[in-house]
Amino acid sequence: MLDNLTQRLSGVIKNLRGQARLTESNIQDALREVRMALLEADVALPVVKDFAAQVKQAAMGQEVIGNLNPGQAFIGVVHRELTKLMGEHNDALNLAITPPAVILMAGLQGAGKTTTSGKLAKLLRDQQKKKVLLVSCDVYRPAAIEQLRTLAAQLEIDFYASDISQKPQDIALAALDYARKHYHDVLIVDTAGRLAIDEAMMAEIKQLHAGLKPIETLFVVDAMTGQDAVNTAKAFGEALPLTGVVLTKLDGDARGGAALSVRHVTGKPIKFIGVSEKPNGLEPFHPERMASRVLGMGDVLSLLEEAQRGVDVQEAEKLAKKVKSGQGFDLNDFKMQMVQMRKMGGVSALLDKLPAQLSKAATDSKVDDKAISRLEGIINSMTPLERSKPELIKASRKRRIAMGAGVQVMHVNQLLKQFEQTQSMMKMFSKGGGMAKMMRNMAGKIPGMR
Amino acid sequence: MFSFLKKNSSETATAPTAEKSGTSWIVRLKSGLARTGNQLSDLFSRGGMIDDELYDELETILITSDVGMDATNALLADLRRHVREHKLSEASELKAALAHCLLKLLKPLAIPLQADTHQPFVIMMVGVNGAGKTTSIGKLAKHFQSQGLSVLLAAGDTFRAAAREQLITWGERNNVTVIAQQSGDAAAVIFDAIQSAQARKIDVVIADTAGRLATQTHLMEEIKKVKRVISKVMPETANSPAAPHEVLLVLDANTGQNALSQVKAFDQALGVTGLVLTKLDGTAKGGVIAAIAKAHPIPVRFIGVGEGLDDLRPFVAEEFIAALLDQPA
User: Can you tell me whether residue A401 is helix, strand or coil?
Assistant: First the structure.
């Protein structure tokens, strides 16, 4: 895994402890680390330079408040500035025009235009009840039209059939005419991938734009793009009046520095991000989450969402009810928690999403998937009665359980202790305000979480 | 060596870019890397002494070419050492010195692919979504045919809409048989293709697979299975290893430092034996090769600089560096 900023900064800022203010001299090293981290995240160099200057200005004279250390305060500044740079809030599509509203997709080869067109059509239909028509003007790449046709059929979206013998311009205008006659709300026009330096192809898309007069012209860009994102975005931005950006393939491990470069150069908002291969894998863009990701601060919100997806809701509700009703939290429930954890991809998958400091702490405390399966083994060696009444487990039972699970008595003791801790935490949950109190405690420990 | 590159690829004349294929390979490679190249020649031709400022600018150029921090630092350290040892002082001498250092870094990667060592020689193409796998297969088929080898393609991308049709179109253009199935399992399609190649005494089988991000654990497990199945059709014998004989990872040259994670992840899962770097015909690019050479060296078998059928070529370190630094090869 890439070194992340939080980790790197903690080293630099150790000797800053006890200082109440961030000053030019004490953030020098930290700023250099910020530059390095951003470069490693593929943020373009000119953008990095501008940004570092901005951070410096914002950080100067910043007071270190509460129980934060100067490093955390500094990261807070970086995070805020980064969020600001990426647009502060989410910009939605503007479709307020006499229908059909035309959306033109543009970008390099392999950025994900066709897939995004399909996902966008589905999103507009499902969430905004729009009647959408899809059309492909890609007469160059073999089977590109076929790809959109197949997608449209899968998603049950109307598709305007085109053919590679036609000119892109003719296809687009015919599709627009068709959309008008059939009362479509939105027409999404997919185009061929093109290089910004390819003059013939850029002239073609300019002509398409002039003919279609789209209300939204979306630039589709791969989150894994490197330093060249700046040049590409600039060239596309100069050729076409872009209205927004779609960042694709964010479900990989790319840090997505391209987002920053593109936003900085075009000045256009990032409207959507592509987060999976599934048809519903297109989400509105949230600048704050992206800032955390670029900085390697962990994506706590996505983690929560994943938890919601992975956890068996019925089981969780059952547990919640049990805890609320005052009935004891027993070893059966404890085991259930571990099973749920495994369903979410195991401890290692969770650690990946946690902020560096937390994940390091967790690694140090040796919570790993192996340990968890050992705990499960121990519980499996207990009788049903022991599981529901753990207080019964005394020396002789411990010996038997240890033998059955192939571990030492010591491990059984550890499990019981962990269980007791969890139990007392559960009691806190059941009392009013417990959760909020816990989150407050946590927020102080996680930079960037408010 | 490059005389045969000049012929026009009329098959692909559908794209307006195809008219460019009349120019020679080197010219196109140069124009692809022009941005980096121009910046570098500006820097070197400016004259004057070698000083820290020059190194700083060089660092900037390398970073903006996606060379990455680690490889940039290593390259500059090597360059400084070289300059000291040879007592260079003029900025103009730095160019040859940089070419020397780059060559040292990249030369080990320039190992061409020998596709006639087994029959059939099975190549498995892998990579992230949109890297250019299917397009590269079309071009590779042409490449092997020009070497006098017969080729068979396996449409193993059973996930993406119309991936099969795309490969079939490439097959028609090259007059190559494509084995495809209506639906189903990638491993099964490739299994059939290899058996069919064995029966027909075909020289090279190129298997397409669906694009996947290395973080998608289930898809990485699936592709491991595809590889296992391939090795079952052609198991290890006394004089040849099990198929696939080559696992080619296709990388988009636009990719930044994530290319490194891709190389590591795919190598860990499948044992990647070669790289294909596509889309080098954009603007500032190519530096990611240096990053890979530094952190996780794997032979670069081919590089692609255009949309024409002839635009995928074996990687030659000297050519690449000459194009980058705008020197005669």
Answer: helix
Contacts of B166 in chain A (CB under 8 A): 141-144, 146-147
* Each residue's pLDDT tens digit, A26-42: 777 778 878 887 888 88
Domains B2-13+114-316 and B22-109 in one fold: no
Domain residue spans in chain A?
3-86, 101-297, 304-440
**A chain contacts of residue B170, beta-carbon cutoff 8 Å:** 142
pLDDT of residue B281: 78
Check if the beta carbon of residue A18 is closer than 8 Å to that of residue A39.
no
Residue B248's contacts (CB-CB under 8 Å, 6 or more residues apart) are B123, B124, B125, B126, B136, B272, B273, B274, B275, B276, B301
Any B CB within 8 A of A388 CB? no
Query: B241 to chain A, minimum CA–CA distance in Å?
Result: 32
- Which tokens hold the place of A170? 């003719």
Please state which CATH number belongs to domain A304-440.
Answer: 1.10.260.30
3-state SS class at A102:
strand
Q: How far is A251 from chain B (nearest CA, A)?
A: 7
Residues 333-372 of A with CB under 8 A from B: 345
B329: three-class secondary structure by DSSP: coil
Q: Which value does ipTM take for this structure?
A: 0.79
Average pLDDT, chain B: 84
Question: For residues A141 and A111, what is the distance between their CA atoms, to the nearest angstrom?
Answer: 14
Which of B130, B173, B257 is the closest to A222 by Cβ? B130
The pTM of this model reads 0.74
Question: Residue B134: what are its φ and ψ, rounded to 5°?
Answer: -65, -45
Radius of gyration from C-alpha coordinates of chain B: 21
Q: Which CATH number fits domain B22-109: 1.20.120.450, 1.20.120.140, 3.50.50.60, 3.30.70.560?
A: 1.20.120.140
Over residues B19-74, the pLDDT tens digits come to 444 457 777 777 767 666 677 777 777 777 888 888 888 888 888 888 888 899 99
Residues of chain A with pLDDT under 70: 1-21, 61-72, 296-328, 341-369, 426-450
Q: Name the residue ranges covered by the structural domains of chain B.
A: 2-13+114-316, 22-109
* CATH topology classification for A3-86: Four Helix Bundle (Hemerythrin (Met), subunit A) (1.20.120)
Q: pLDDT digit string (tens) for B115-130? A: 888 889 999 999 999 8
Residue of B nearest to A234 (CA): B283
**CATH code of the domain made up of B2-13+114-316:** 3.40.50.300
Q: Which CATH number fits domain A101-297: 3.30.1330.60, 3.30.930.10, 3.40.50.300, 3.30.1330.10?
A: 3.40.50.300
Whether chain B has a CB inside 8 Å of the CB on A216: the answer is: no
Nearest chain B residue (CA) to A257: B256
pLDDT for residue A442:
46
Strand partners, A40: none
